[in-house]
Design brief:
The chain is of the alpha+beta class. 30% of the residues lie in helices and 19% in strands. The protein has helices at 6-21, 91-102, 149-153, 166-172, 178-197, 246-250, 258-273; strands at 38-43, 64-71, 77-83, 105-107, 113-115, 124-130, 135-141, 147-148, 210-214, 237-241. It has a five-stranded antiparallel beta sheet. It has a three-stranded antiparallel beta sheet with strand order 8-9-10. Strands 4-5 form a two-stranded antiparallel sheet.
Amino acid sequence: SVGLPNHTLWALYRSIAMDCAREMEPNDARYKAIPPTFTNAMPLKSNSNNNHNHVPRSSFGYHTSIFKVTSQEDGRLYCLRRFDNVKGVNQKIAMTVTNAWTRAMYRNRGSARHVLSHPGLVRLIKCLYVVQNRAVFFVHQYHPASLTLRECLYGLGRGTGSIITDDMVRNGFHPLEERTIWSYITQLSSTIRAVHRGNLACRTLQLNHILVSPDAGSGVDENTGMLGGDMIRTNRVRLRINCVGVLDALEFEARRPIEELQMEDMRCLGRIIL
């Protein structure tokens, strides 16, 4: 009905179904790190040493655990991030950040005001603070069968490591077509504009914080159920800016003027383009 081969649609929806269905064993010890209001969890980053007690540091500077979870409140899938031993964050700050991103309004053409929502944005649902271990949780939308832009550009699979070597850059990266680059620029610029209109800043415009989600007709590996290696080199994908609101909470006490943060967004976009 959408003009695509049946095997292409089958591979796309199969990859989404496989990603949504993955979950840990019910008695897995890692469930202790997840609030009881969430279930059917699955870690989104694997440990190379298979040590479940080892929690890696994220690019935000804190020990971080990331899970795909199902909410017992509404039955929807979400991405849950847990940051441990965070100083300077409390329940009031968590609520302030949640309200800033869930109630942000912007003006489009004319005088009408709209709730901030954009297809290129991984929306923040809520930020939670737990006194025990000074843990901060961020609940974002979950987009199945997605990889980061960094993983796609350098041929890395999900959870294969966090270091890009010079050999990967020389051997794994190939220039993108001009039309693909323009597609990415248009998508990212549109999302940034919507966020800035809401008097907010993305603050996470890096390759490892931009999700690449398949569109109908995108290449999907039928064996692994993940995005195909050549998918990133087409313009049939959706880029989504991820992890919004995280730095707003973690650096709340050292927050800078919004104009300065928005200018930093534009500089980061320029670095990505180059």
